[in-house]
Protein 1
Amino acid sequence: MKIKLLAIVLFATRLFSQAGYEVVSLGSNVNSNNYEMAPYITPDGKKLFMVKADHPENTKSPDYPNQDIWFSKKMSDGNWDKAQHLGFPFNTSRYSSIIGQSSDGNVRYIKGYYSKGEYIKSGFSVSYLKTEGWTDPKGFDVPKYAKMQKSKTVSNSISASNNILVMAFSEDEKKDEHDIYVSIYKDDDWSKPLKLGPKINTESSDGTPFLASDNVTLYFSSDRPGGYGSADIYMSKRLDDTWQNWTDPVNLGPQINSNAWDAYFTIPAAGDYFYMIKDGDVVKIKAKEEQKPNPVVLVRGNVLNAKTKEPLGASISYFDLSTGTESGIATSNPKTGEYIIILPYGKNYSFKATQSGFYSITENMNLLNVLSYKEINKNLLLSPIETGQVIRINNIFFETGKSILKSESYFELDNLVKLLNDNPLMEIFIAGHTDNVGNDEYNNKLSKDRAAAVVTHLTSKGIAALRLTCDGFGKVKPVADNAREEGKALNRRVEFTIIKK
């Protein structure tokens, strides 16, 4: 048991400052007389999970030592409130730990394969926040994992994008020297664990992986030669999508690493502070620029019924518009509609919410130019599928001043094709609109031609022409003030009206 000093500051306590680093204990609200382990900071930096060993309020078990999940919330003054036991269904008689949480906090992943509240075997489980509370953790299969994993201990984490699982284990039951693997969630299934490249995995033990919110920067522990203790924390960045090519791992240095076993490193999307364990306590350390992950954009908002503005629980997906590939998934809070997604720079994204009985109005965010970390508020609207409903088709792009569809539009139009295929009796009217730049004759023709181009694309995908009508209205039906560029952008649009359901 670790020994506490008599003089304990209520909140954060500065431990030392050395070579530009400031190591700050999160204080007695977070730390206890028992060992804290495996901290996990949520991507928005507002909630901290940790494991407390043998705490008197842990779940009692006569057969196993207690290791339960606790959490603390960041208060408005920047300090952390009193840590709380997470309770059932996340804490059981087994060793419990959070291995990841969706960026919005509405999906949680824990260590161990569970069914109906009972531990079944080594593996992973997921729980969803519903209106009535959290679902019982349900195990999910990672192909070949059970046969490959033969070590006594494991360490895992899931990306904030919900679709990348990094794992550390040994395939040799005689040795507990770990290697790091990755599994990708695609088409409703996880892939077989893929061993990362030789710069990450060595003859030494490499483990406790944490993938930052950019899905590129990996922090992990290793006892490879050249470190400061029994294990040190390293950082490396992925160079491509093979997961084999990485930058040379960089030891984070003697101010972070010590002569002890340093591991379990976590960092929020902002990349400003590291959270880790020092002498059994959770501490935070201000990150240096060269140690930070790549900058990202945190998008938050609410999923709303476009007609009534009521909040909705929905599934959220975001895609790379250039390839149409899914970049991540999330869910909105079923009571408030609140969601958070994290978008790394360097791509043009489409993202949407999906719920039965609604048409997803997608949003676009162009992040090709890399800037610094920032947060953006953006509500996502779902239009009820009913006669008379007018729905804007976002993420539809034409060549400047022309009616030629750009390839980036196909992904969005495929959603409309799916709607029409799912509702074979549905008929829609497609309308084109412009801003007030240019003469009436030009605008009227351009808007008609663009609406017609959408009809042509839909019929090329097998939609019967009799179900589609179209027209253009030029500048006469604005939805925003043309005096501002933002208003002009809103007025340049294509939308459809459900004529028959």
Protein 2
Amino acid sequence: MAFSSNQSDDAITDINVTPLVDVSLVLVIIFMAVAPFAVQSGIKVLQSKASAQVGKVSMSESIQVKLNAAGRITLNGAEVGLPDFPAAVAAALAASKDKFVIIKADDANRVGDVVELMDTAKQSGAAKMALMKN
């Protein structure tokens, strides 16, 4: 019995791309699943230009809240305690037509104190707010 072999000793020149495609598709699926978690959430802050607010709101019409380094709060020049601040800002907002609050703070103030004032002003009915450095 004679065997006829059609096998040659030539090298295989064909590349099997199936494993490459499988790995690529798995990586694409992993990146699509992980991508929504990589997005960080936060507060959107819009930086206005210097000429954007000229003539729209005068300083006398807006409500000015100052927080100094010692923690004292003044509302339109009058000193207000923290427990009385919500009622005072609500009364000032009721008299204001544009409901615009400007909060001024020192560098020494804690961020939490400033955010608490912003939150109280927003809950009292402030439509717009601005932060300024003292």
Protein 3
Amino acid sequence: MTNDADLSAAAESSLRGRLEEEAEQLDSQLRELGRDESSLDYDDNFADSGQVAAEQGENQALAARLREQLDDVELALSKLDNGSYGRCEVCGNQIGEARLEVMPAARFCIEHAG
């Protein structure tokens, strides 16, 4: 490490690679979910319209969670680019490297991690 408050260049590079890979996977999942959802042709007279509505709701909820995760990953990548990566958004302290290893898109230190 360059100092106690900064991530090592090697750790930062590793985390960037993981974040980029995660962004690709999330984007792929969103595209696949969108393709599946738009290609489904639901019959309005289908006997179990409640089941259809439930499945549509589940797909929408999943898409929202995936989009939120992708937004967090993209934010982390932008923070890597501007030099603010690894800082808690509440207190500004460095997020522990062990926490970032587990959750590379973490926005908060352990103390402020809701």
Protein 4
Amino acid sequence: MHGLNKEQKTIKLIQMKKAISTLSIVRFIRLPFLVLMLFVGVQTLLAQDSTIAKTPVVKKKSLVKNTFEGNHIIDNQTVMVPIKGTFEFDIQHRFGTVEHGWKDLGGLFASANMLLGFSYVPIKDLQFGFGATNDRMQTAGTIKYSLLKQTKNNTMPVSVTLFGNMVMDTRAKNSALPIINIQDRMSYFSQLIIARKLTENFSLQLAPSFSYFNNVEGYYDDAKIIQAKTNNGHLAISVAGRYKITEGMSIIANYDQPITQHPMNNPNPNISLGLDMKTSGHDFQIFVGNYGYILPQNNNVYNHNDFTKSQFLIGFNISRLWNF
């Protein structure tokens, strides 16, 4: 400001003060805007990071429950596997056929087949079992595994379960039972069970199966088979259904159709109808049908009861469950 008179200096000072005041106002106005922009930027970055890091939420599938009431439906297994930790005790009984009427009281006084067995579910969807029957003095080990389960939204429209067993004939060797080694005592059964709960009351399942006997019936000479009456392997298919009539009672039905044709002694199909009564810890089934055995491979290969000739019989299944 050298060279300026007093008046000019005063004017210059006033102008400088105005400029400083204007700059201060601009800075005051711009500061909140910068802070706001910084806040928005930080929030945007955080939102982007959150979106990147966020794990997609997978909704838990809602499964269909109680497709059937228990493990058994007359002469077949159902698609059901009990919950983990379930111990089950089973009694299965088949009387003689009713064709002789009052002579044997509708088969009640005739020879009967019975099986006592138990099973356990050590881990989810996997069940092991063991049983023994007076028919041919056989013992059986079983395994059952749930592969797929029907969902309520039909992303999985059916339930699928695998069932299998390994059976040993423990009778003593004789001329009618030419057993050379332990393999001759063994038979096997495997089944793929496909089921759908169509309504709250109605369920249906389809189950193709394969039975295999190491030692088959035939004509023998010096313990060597000359001609087999049946093949070692046998294919069959089963259709079973349940319709609930009350909360604890259902009508149950079952049909088994042999597929394999053998050289002779071809088995007959089976048709069964009965009632299933369920409580919290018990499952009781009573029915009539023409399968007289209990183990599935014996029924599929050796059933010669003919329902067209009234060769039906009364049977029942009792199951008792505990959970540990």
